[in-house]
Q: What sequence folds into this?
């Protein structure tokens, strides 16, 4: 995948939360979902946590990523508090595996927070489009040089 100008890590994580929000909370249920993450010295994501709040002031851990890959070679994403979402797993795995291809702020060791409220249908459509664009190989790649016999 080639980085596109509109794809930065915060926007991609926000899009993932919007797309998977209905798996975590009832559609139209007021409340918030957020991703908190921190970078390691090598600019990779050191830790990532997804939290949900259906009741003001009460947050429950949805899942967390430890920064170390599992024995199977995939990101180590562990769910908590009865939450489970194949969609969130799929998209977070993709973002974590391709994290170096998304633009990000240059500061290391900073906590970042991306928060999502109840999205509109337009928000959902834009988020899904952004996620699908990121997963689609860039059609503008330079063509392979063909060897020709002279």
A:
């Amino acid at each position: 995948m080639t980085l596109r100008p509109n794809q930065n890590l915060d926007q991609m994580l926000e899009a993932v939360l919007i797309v998977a929000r209905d798996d975590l909370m009832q559609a139209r249920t007021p409340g918030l979902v957020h991703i908190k993450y921190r970078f390691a010295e090598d600019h990779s994501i050191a830790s990532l946590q997804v939290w949900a709040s259906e009741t003001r002031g009460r947050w429950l851990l949805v899942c967390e990523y430890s920064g170390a890959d599992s024995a199977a070679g995939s990101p180590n994403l562990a769910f908590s508090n009865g939450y489970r979402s194949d969609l969130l797993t799929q998209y977070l795995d993709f973002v974590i595996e391709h994290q170096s291809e998304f633009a990000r702020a240059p500061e290391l060791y900073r906590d970042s927070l991306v928060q999502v409220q109840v999205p509109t249908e337009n928000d959902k459509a834009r988020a899904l489009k952004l996620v699908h664009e990121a997963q689609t190989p860039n059609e503008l790649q330079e063509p392979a040089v063909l060897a020709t016999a002279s």
